[in-house]
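WARN retry 2 of 3 for item q-0093 after timeout on previous attempt; input resubmitted unchanged.
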Amino acid sequence: MARHKNVGRPICFKKDFTAFGNIGPLFIKETMKIKDTGDCLEVSSMVLGPQKLDSKIFPGVHYCKLLSPARVIDYYMTDSLKKISGCLNKDPKESHAAIYTQ
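OK item q-0093 returned
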């Protein structure tokens, strides 16, 4: 951790966001947003709910997507020490070549 404190970049947690219409199937389809800005790793999570207690379907339910502790450790031990991360989950339509040209 001393090395990270000297030269590493932090994780910046951004505001959570909901699926269109706060609909369950769209919540399942969507993913977390993870973006490397060069200053920090910006993370925002998908959230659904909480549902009202008088809801006919799943009353009181609250869902959110979590960042894996293994991913956090991996970032702090390796990627945070680089100028930009190269192993983030990317949109399949996005070119991997863009990572190396920045």
